Amino acid sequence: MKIRRLLCTATCATLALLAAPRSAHATGFAELGEDIVRRDKVTVEVDGYLRTRGEMLHNLDLDRGLTTSGQPLFPVSKADPSAQTLTHWDMRARLDMKVFAPGQTFAVKLRLDALDNLSLGSVPNDVPAATTGQRSPADPLKVRRAYGEALLPFGLLVAGRMGTSWGLGLVANGGDCLDCDSADAQDRVALVTPIANHVFAVAYDFSSTGPVGTRPSPNRFLDLERSTNVRTATMAFLRGWSKDSIERRKKAGKVTVDYGGYFTHRWQSNDVPGSYLPTAQPLDVSSQTQIMSRGLTATGIDAWAKLVTKNLRLEAEFAMVLSTIEQSSAIPGVLLRDPVKARQIGAAFESDYGSDDGLLSAGLDFGYASGDPAPGMGVSQKLGQKAPKAGDLDGPQANPPRDSRIDNFRFHPDYRIDRILFREIIGTVTDATYVRPHAKVKLVEEASFRITATAAAVASMASFAESTPGGKKPLGVEIDPSLTYEHKDGFFATLDYGVLFPLSGLDNPVTAMFAKPAQLVRLRFNYVF
After folding, report:
1. Rounded to two decimals, what is the model's pTM?
2. CA angle centred on 225, ends 219 and 229, rounded to 5°
3. Which of 3, 16, 195, 523 is 20 to 30 A away from residue 117, measured at CA?
């Protein structure tokens, strides 16, 4: 295997191993540096997609009344809270640009998202009743990535803001799939090199810098206090094959085993809460009085493995994060006695059985995310948010000084196992165990297009009964079928349906109301180039 196919970058929030089918400019190990080939002149390559999505969401508040804090489980109509159905359309245009220098040495790559998840009709150019069109939103263009790859004698040097993902995308996910909403990226310098048929990488992330001030030259800035910076260092290794190589080995009937792991560590000595907390009056964040001790350390490990045969794929990822915040107070001069600690564990397993050219394939997936006995599932961890009460759906899991632990592991929100419960109502998989059988059948296969149908059933249970609104562990059973039309030139049309049958963990024991089923219909068009 050529050196450019072996080179990679990794970090706890690191680079991806797998890319979704027909995704724009993936963040995979196999792709990094692969396209640096000999060229006679400057070459520019462009790819991307346009996406539009429409949704109809029926009874996602489950008709079980309000939580203990007076909130529905899911937003409801402002004009009629008893209304059952909400609708929404949005869009995104993504552009990936790659500029290659003459020769065979380096490339510069960009990712731009325009009108990212913009609600259709949300920016009328006049009063709503008289509008004749839409104006540009305040932030029409987002620069997601801008980084360079240089192929050197001792490895691949990568620097800039680049996508971060790893394995199944359980912890870090570059958001490359056609239906993804997030886009993890890190400001990073990394060196990747092949040794003994493995790929080894070291990475240093500029996770957060500040406060910053201007120099005498007003066009540049200066890091005013190094001790308040958040930095992350990672070491990773991988034994893997590129996507094309795996396909060739499958056709030859060979077994392919990929695996990898990483160790990452993040730290911050001091902090300036005034630089990110809302205050009644502007603060001079460069003042020494605004600096307080933080003592943050976080260590993560992750292991990933995949086995592929002609008709079978088995893939698994395990992650654990240990962290300590010695001083969790956000008010300078007001200190807390006990540190806040976390031990979070997550794991996922996926399987598929069936040949690529066969009519039917099926598999069984399952996963686990550690929980915390504090009320609420713990997806939302917003600054200044009040501690949840028993019967609430969400809220911070630590409440110093009484509760100084945050042990719930949160899957990345773009690692999706369902369409309603975890994706929409809870926000992501956390504090839960799930089992997911699934199947796919090819309905039509023509030279220019194909039509496929998929279906999955998801049964889930909370790790701690105290975390759920109903005070019980069973969460629900969801059924998610889909129908997809795929044209060879890059047009995709997908119709999704989902129905959630909630169980006792989502009931309302205070009012003795039982949670009722919820439904979702989503239509998505993707124009991929």
Report:
1. 0.90
2. 95
3. 16
